[in-house]
């Protein structure tokens, strides 16, 4: 277990033990499956505080927050923070915040964070807030969402290859009025792929024949896999370039519309993600009905954070 893993394990056990005021440093080490000496050495080096000092500070921050947000007696807060008496808690609180708990409570606009080298603080109502591991701009997150969309679409196509034609073409009963009427697994997979192809053609001012929605979809899964491998990678590359060059607010003329219309690149990406999320959710449910459940809910949360599937 490297120092990053030790730090993560320690923060997790501290968060889990906030409502256990009698917890000691040895208890934290045991829960993190580490010796107390090793935990103390690594955490102190990484966070600038010993494990015990870190936990005491977080509990004081929680007490300071609760003084502002809850109608709880000071003695109750003292006990919850691990202090044996009102007096001991008041002394510790006054040293940390420069005033007594009662004085603090009269100023409801105060910030309860205490200075900490690690940047880890109590986060209401009962968690911890960790600093960002790296700078992430809003549009960087958008790129990650597009990467997740393309990855998950590929996984959905792969799951579709496990199904027979009858299951692929079975109508999906749950739908939204006015969006993709009379849908099936094959229909939605096909729609996800040609949505990528259509917008790639539009921004490149190339012709694209929008499929006739009145006609049944018969596209083989093998063809969708090949087309998505090409269009998906090109769509990610396009969005990445737009982000790096700061061009999301630029406009382009979509000549696939009649009459042609003007859209921004950012608006186009938002459109793709919005409607794709609806279709992917329907597919997740349809696959679940068909007995394929290994994609979970298709949630992008973990993928956006660290690149791992949900």
Structure description:
The chain contains 13 helices and 4 strands. The protein has helices spanning 3-16, 25-31, 36-47, 51-69, 74-80, 86-97, 101-105, 138-160, 165-168, 185-203, 221-244, 265-289, 301-306, and strands spanning 121-123, 127-129, 251-254, 261-264. The two termini are 23 Å apart.
Named CATH architecture of the largest domain: Up-down Bundle
- Largest β sheet strand count, sense and barrel closure: 2 strands, antiparallel
Specify the CATH homologous superfamily of the largest domain.
dinb family like domain
* CATH C-level of the largest domain: Mainly Alpha
Q: What is the number of domains?
A: 2
CATH topology (fold) name of the largest domain: Four Helix Bundle (Hemerythrin (Met), subunit A)
**What ranges have pLDDT less than 50 throughout 5 or more consecutive residues?**
none
Helix content: 55-70%
How much of the residues is beta strand, in percent?
under 5%
Apparent shape: elongated
Number of strands: 4
Strand order of the largest sheet: 1-2
SSE series: HHHHHHHEEHHHHEEHH
From the N-terminal CA to the C-terminal CA, the straight-line distance is: 23 Å
Q: Helix- and strand-based class?
A: mainly alpha
Roughly how many Å is the radius of gyration?
27 Å
Q: What's the rounded overall pLDDT mean?
A: 87
The number of helical elements comes to 13
Protein name: AraC-like DNA-binding protein
Keywords: DNA-binding, Transcription, Transcription regulation
Organism: Kribbella orskensis
Pfam families: HTH_18 (PF12833)
